[in-house]
Amino acid sequence: MTNTHLIQANGVNKVFPNGCHALKNVSLNINRGEVVVIIGPSGSGKSTFLRTLNQLESISAGDITIDGVDLTDKHTNINKVREEVGMVFQSFNLFPHKTALGNVMLAPVKVRRQAKAEAEQDARDLLYRVGLHDRIDSYPSRLSGGQQQRVAIARSLAMKPKVLLFDEPTSALDPEMVGEVLDVMKSLASDGMTMVVVTHEMGFAREVADRVVFMEDGELVFEETPERFFDSSHPRLQRFLGQVL
């Protein structure tokens, strides 16, 4: 029987060299096809935890397993793991000298050694999927922030990842562009993509998440389904929601 947990994080701690204890015994299992949204105040450890899931941030204690592979095992080829774990950042990190198509094609050709013609067709399909079929030949400088972020999502999808991590994907966008990125994310969720999303977008959490997780001071304080989460009387959660809603 296959394990339904795609991601298993157990007792994860992160202490930075300056002594900051950023993650304190965080444990979280994420199932295949599940959308988990992580919310909490700035400095609560949300983004640090997300970055441990592809070892952009090493951990001080605990263990993380993705699809049966132990990320903390020194024999694990972490670059192979990262091919399966897509990440979308606040900043779009597109190559300015490449078109939207060129940006999306690059990793499958370079990393997965995919044939160029096949990679190009896949990239065109993905740009169509994120609503950018008319911007395929545009360079990043000619795209809005929302369009660049949608290219970045298509680029992550091009590697056919098992899970997508989103680190506040809309926080650098002008308000009118947030919706177009969230719409793409909603469509990925409805297609069954496993997603872990750090965001301040409470409407997205309410509408799309299977579970919402609240972090504060490096701890995973509370997790529930959206219905129960936003109606919870948990005092630390209520204090936070009172500030953001």
From TrEMBL:
<dbReference type="InterPro" id="IPR003439">
    <property type="entry name" value="ABC_transporter-like_ATP-bd"/>
</dbReference>
<dbReference type="InterPro" id="IPR050086">
    <property type="entry name" value="MetN_ABC_transporter-like"/>
</dbReference>
<dbReference type="InterPro" id="IPR027417">
    <property type="entry name" value="P-loop_NTPase"/>
</dbReference>
<dbReference type="InterPro" id="IPR003593">
    <property type="entry name" value="AAA+_ATPase"/>
</dbReference>
<comment type="similarity">
    <text>Belongs to the ABC transporter superfamily.</text>
</comment>
<keyword id="KW-0547">Nucleotide-binding</keyword>
<dbReference type="InterPro" id="IPR017871">
    <property type="entry name" value="ABC_transporter-like_CS"/>
</dbReference>
<protein>
    <submittedName>
        <fullName>Peptide ABC transporter ATP-binding protein</fullName>
    </submittedName>
</protein>
<dbReference type="GO" id="GO:0005524">
    <property type="term" value="F:ATP binding"/>
</dbReference>
<dbReference type="InterPro" id="IPR030679">
    <property type="entry name" value="ABC_ATPase_HisP-typ"/>
</dbReference>
<feature type="domain" description="ABC transporter">
    <location>
        <begin position="7"/>
        <end position="242"/>
    </location>
</feature>
<dbReference type="GO" id="GO:0005886">
    <property type="term" value="C:plasma membrane"/>
</dbReference>
<dbReference type="GO" id="GO:0015424">
    <property type="term" value="F:ABC-type amino acid transporter activity"/>
</dbReference>
<keyword id="KW-0813">Transport</keyword>
<keyword id="KW-0067">ATP-binding</keyword>
<dbReference type="GO" id="GO:0016887">
    <property type="term" value="F:ATP hydrolysis activity"/>
</dbReference>
<keyword id="KW-0029">Amino-acid transport</keyword>
<dbReference type="Pfam" id="PF00005">
    <property type="entry name" value="ABC_tran"/>
</dbReference>
